[in-house]
């Protein structure tokens, strides 16, 4: 899923700055949540039309930066916990297919307990 060279670049960036000492799983998870909240702020109080306008403005780079921050912390967390992100996603999709059978959920947004 993530390019291994990019992952190594991220890990080397962190290592060179001696930040591993601060990057406990708890603190990375907290940082991941904070960055995800900053991502939400990009959309907060915006209409769909305003979001589309922002996507085609200089504000798009801010969105890309927030998405990158979320991804970097997720990559660090998976690396530090020995989780293969691609495999975790594949395993989750198997569960999702069972939890959300196509014939029951297509075109619906109900919670799985509602059907």
**Structural class of the helix and strand makeup?**
mainly alpha
Main sheet attributes: strand count, strand direction, barrel closure? none
β-strand amount: under 5%
Q: Would you identify the CATH architecture of the largest domain?
A: Orthogonal Bundle
Overall pLDDT: 96
Terminal CA distance reads 33 Å
- The H/E string reads HHHHHH
Radius of gyration, taken over Cα atoms and rounded to an integer in Å: 18 Å
| Count of domains | 2
> Helical proportion?
over 70%
CATH topology of the largest domain: Helix Hairpins
CATH superfamily of the largest domain: MazG-like
- CATH C-level of the largest domain: Mainly Alpha
Feature tags:
Nucleotide pyrophosphohydrolase, dCTP_Pyrophosphatase, mainly alpha, 115 residues, nucleoside triphosphate diphosphatase activity, Helix Hairpins, DCTPP
